[in-house]
Amino acid sequence: MYKRSSQLAMSAIAAILGFLVVVQLHGQQASSGLGAMSAQDLTVLVANLNTRNDELRTEIANLEAQLSDIDSAQAQGSTVVDQIGLDLHRIQGWAGLQPVGGPGVTITVAGKISGPAVEDLINELHNAGAEAIAVEGVRLVPGSVVSGPPGQLAVDDEPLDDPFEITVVGSKEALTGSLTRTGGIIAQLGATNPSVTVTVTPLDNLLVPATRRNLIPRNGHPRL
Amino acid sequence: MTAVRARLRTIPSWQVTLGIALLALGFLIAAQLASEGPRIRYTTQERPPLVETVTGLQRQQEDYKKRILELRGAIQSAEQQGQGSASLLRQLNDQLDEARLAAGLTQLTGTGFAFELTDSTQAVPAGANDSDYLVTARDIRAIVEELWLAGAEAIAVNGERITTTTAIVDVGGTILVNSAYEAPPYQIVALGPQDIYSRVAASQGFTDFIRARAQTYGIGIAILQPETVNIPAFAGTVGFTLGQVVESPAP
Fold it and tell me: Which of A42, A197, A200, B241 has the highest CB neighbour number within 10 Å of its CB?
């Protein structure tokens, strides 16, 4: 009698154990991705996706207009040199091959700060809509990294002094607001690096130089 | 003491097994209830439509990106067939091809390798921060920075090309790259010299990253070494809203 009831109890417990292990493992996997996001986070994500989609729609409209200009120039038998020149100018500027001027902010960073912390600051600038950035006159392009421990920072093999300056072209208001908001990147840096001071100065006109890096890949080629 | 031992010896073995199984059951029920907490909090009525909206917007984004790449291809063809001085056109088109390559507007193939980052599968200890066990935007940025320092020439994260304007940010428990929502696992593909992995592996920054994230929290880092890697073209906005391109003075 004892043996039979103990076997039944063991079977029931084994079944429940198995079920719980599977549920637990499934729960661990589901803890990332949309399923794990709160309504508030999803709302922020929707706002981000809407902004990006608006930008993409604008880009599509610009490209359609550009294509239509080239097509009409060709239909009228006129040259497309001007259109190509404009396209070249825009892409070279965006890629970092030409200097860019306009409104923006300068950021003076003083104190013992690490390369990754400066990179966090730069990432926040990109997120706030920076259009071109230079660190102590070095234009930031893919491949440029501010690296090194505090006191030994460098960018593109150029050592950085203390203090050093970051020049950013973009909306003065958006950049200043994003950097200095409560809980923003400057507040975070201040909390983790109390000796660091970051000063943001909005300016009506500043210049970000062209890169000196060669941006043509040597280990790859266009995939057709 | 002897009486206690004698009493223990009289307990049937099935009772001991049952006791251990009940202990494990209790532990699992407690773990399940603890992990259910945040999910129950998120089960609100407004979530399903929001998730649906996100999925719809992502689909829309993919369509827009495809359209942008199509239009750029059409513009490139039209520019190459344009009328005007043949030598001037050729020169301008060559410069344009180079500028597109430099800007990340051209799909590339070549040597390189890839990392894949996955969330930790370790159980989160009581009182610990759940997000420490998930891949964060800072983790991806750390790997991208190490790859650039090791000589990478082009990088993409889950198919999003890293460009001059790319931000990689956390939103809740997810990551946005170029404002595109990316779900785990995160594949970071780099085009660069053949020995790029050994260069990354030898760097202090990468060693520190492995110690801080993989060894401490169990963040998964897999290394993929395909013969060739493909890096997609950037499909996004190219240009300025407020900035203006200034001609470089002639050298």
Answer: A42
